[in-house]
Amino acid sequence: MPETPSGASRPTERLSLPEARQAALAAQGFTTAFPSPEAVVRHLGLLQFDPVGVFVPAHYLVLYSRLGPYDRALADGAIRYSRQFTEQWAHEASIIPVETWPLLKHRMAQHRLRPWPFDQLLERHPGYLESVLEALRQRGPLTPAEIEPPAGVARRLTSDWGGSVPRAALEALFGRGLAASSARLPNHARVYDLPEQLIPSKHRNRTIAPGAARRELLTIAARALGVATAADLADYFRLRRTDAKPAIQELVEAGTLSPVAVEGWKESAYLAPEAQTGGMRQGALLISPFDPLVWFRPRTLRLFGFHYRIGIYTPAAKREYGYYDIPVLLDDQLVARLDLRANVRGKLEVQGAWAEPGRDPEQIALPIARELHRAAAWLDQEGIRVLRKGNLSGALRRAVSR
Predict the structure, then answer these.
(1) What stretch of H or E contains 340?
(2) Are strands 284-286 and 325-330 parallel, antiparallel or unpaired?
(3) Region class of 232: left (phi > 0), else alpha (psi between -120 and 50), else beta
(4) Peptide linkage before 115 cis (omega within 30 of 0)
(5) In whole angstroms, how large is the CA radius of gyration of the chain?
(6) Gap between the Cα atoms of 248 and 266, Å rounded
(7) In this structure, what are the phi and psi dihedrals at residue 186, rounded to the nearest 5 degrees?
(8) What does the pLDDT look like over 118-162, one tens digit per residue?
């Protein structure tokens, strides 16, 4: 535990790798009984939104991993459509508490337009963004379908990014903080409105210097991660590491973060004051590919020895574990990955199941099967079908049928 190296000005704590995992899991809320989805989002600091629904949209799974079966419709009402939360580019597109919105203002001011043909279009039609903003002022919440492109301009954008000219305009206003997301349509597309209609003035009008905003964001990240390197902390809100490092040092000097050495980690790490290294969660859980526990892949490898690259971002010919492979947490280890599909003829289908190297499929299959039955019931599936792909599939098929 705490040691004082010769000549050091402050104690440097040393953590074993199991202690670091325990600190990470506790900080991420896996040992906490949460009363509501809102409490989970506040604990994590943000909830990355992702609509890919071959199993269940990723943000729903993040909540499920900490709450167990819950009513997704009630969660939508309490989180996505309340004035306590909003959306902004935080760690990618994310749901955040409204009080976090002003911490991102310095990023909004630097927001870059995309896709690249759109900035060229605006050079030819410099008043277009203002006209779209005026439409929001006059007409209230709008979707891209309710906005027209500039006169004589084709509606569709010719770029790999896709979408339409009105969508690119609304996204530009959203990224700059001049518009906000008031809802999501059934296809997960945003409905846009003015920030003053959605974000309370005490947060909307709060001005924070960039340095102070970074320190607050890094403090939120540290509490949510428990133990983390500078790269881990910066990634949580997608801060540039060159900006994050001096802010981290200021937090150390203020006593908000404590330097820590973690067994096997080459990089220096930092411990949040609230971090807990005792106790361990039990049982198997399905982990969203966009869960903060695993979304920064170098950290996932350092903490769990788990090399993860989700199949949806991998060319089909190079996929090793299917299209939508989901990590499985068992106790304090990532032990397997499952390629899952929901609603395949009314069933939850395991298209592939792989145990990690060194894991005995027979020993891990039963707790994973229990978790699959729980997830299938939550998603109103009529049963579970396990296909024959992967070194875990046989043991898992037998365990599911018990």
Answers:
(1) strand 333-344
(2) antiparallel
(3) alpha
(4) yes
(5) 23
(6) 18
(7) -55, -30
(8) 888 888 999 999 999 999 999 999 999 999 999 988 898 876 555
